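[Meeting: bench + compute handoff]

Bench side (C.D.) handed over the final construct sequence. Compute side (W.E.) agreed to return the predicted structure before the next meeting so the bench team could plan truncations. Sequence as handed over:
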Amino acid sequence: MDVHGHGVGNGSLYVRVSYLGLGAKVRHQSGPRGRAPGPRTTTPHGTLDPYLTPHGTLDPYLTPHGTLDPYLTPHGTLDPYLTPHGTLDPYLTPHGTLDPYLTPHGTLDPYLTPHGTLDPYLTPHGTLDPYLTPHGTLDPYLTPHGTLDPYLTPHRTLDPYLTPHGTLDPYLTPHGTLDPYLTPHGTLDPYLTPHGTLDPYLTPHGTLDPYLTPHGTLDPYLTPHGTLDPYLTPHGTLDPYLTPHGTLDPYLTPHGTLDPYLTPHGTLDPYLTPHGTLDPYLTPHGTLDPYLTPHGTLDPYLTPHGTLDPYLTPHGTLDPYLTPHGTLDPYLTPHGTLDPYLTPHGTLDPYLTPHRTLDPYLTPHGTLDPYLTPHGTLDPYLTPHGTLDPYLTPHGTLDPYLTPHGTLDPYLTPHGTLDPYLTPHGTLDPYLTHTAASNDVIINSTTWS
């Protein structure tokens, strides 16, 4: 529809409405004649013409169908975001600039990242870069030639087994640590043992250490000066008989153990029996122990509650003195240790005395020692061969009838006195005579009886 209006000079408005395609014309005259008409903005029905602007010009924002023109911006310019087909231009961003993610063909640019930067994972040919990791960094496993780096481990660390030349490092062990057997020159270290530790037998000069034993320990017999240690026994232990001053320790027994009869003050210990053991009848307070039997052993019949329990001690533990049958263990002493008087068969050990020492009367075979007297001393009647000593009398004294050669002494009478008929040379005394009828000795014709 085309609308035109103008004045006719007499105050009336002349309006021509032309409907496109119909060729209709309308003449309307009103108002004073002779006045110029204003712009036409209404339809023949008196409503605002939607195709016209207030200035009576065609509305540039409308299409011939009276709808908003999708190709125009609010400013009446061509919309840069639209194609000639009225669709969004795929090459443009919302800001009207060329989309950096698209190629001239409208496809996603394979060389660009979502941020519009060059994709570090792609080569100029659009393929994945074999030198890059998924993080876009240089792959540490690859050489510049794209091959695996022989100097790196799967953990991206330098291979400790290889030298800079790619050969096995002769100074390293299979664990990548320095070989303890080699010197910096690659030769066997003379100071190390096959275990890689310092050889305890060698000094820093490579000579045998005079202070060490063949076992590599300090020689217990030597002082730091290399002299024999006067405080040590031949077994390398501290001499139990000596004090740090080298004097005999008054608290020790001849066996090198603490004298059980003495307190640290050197007085007799009131808690010990004459055998040096703790008095089983006394508590640490010196009172009679209510848990002990008259034999000094723990009462196997009492529990901590005072009830009879043959298997428990007063402390609720298994009684070491009892067998599983509740009887006293014949192999144990009142102290719970193996009884040294008994054999594994429970019989008295024939080799021990009541004092738990080796029986001096017995041989290692358990027979009576023929060399000992009932007192345990060497039998004076026996020779080292176990035969009767021909030089001794039944009293153990030297036989006065025998000479040092074991023959009868010619100077003695059967009574062991000097023979009055003999001279000191063993010949008949010429001054003495005797008759066969009597024992009278006649000297110089005088009879002595």
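W.E. noted at the follow-up: Confidence is low (pLDDT under 50) at residues 1-35, 435-449. C.D. will use this when planning the next construct.
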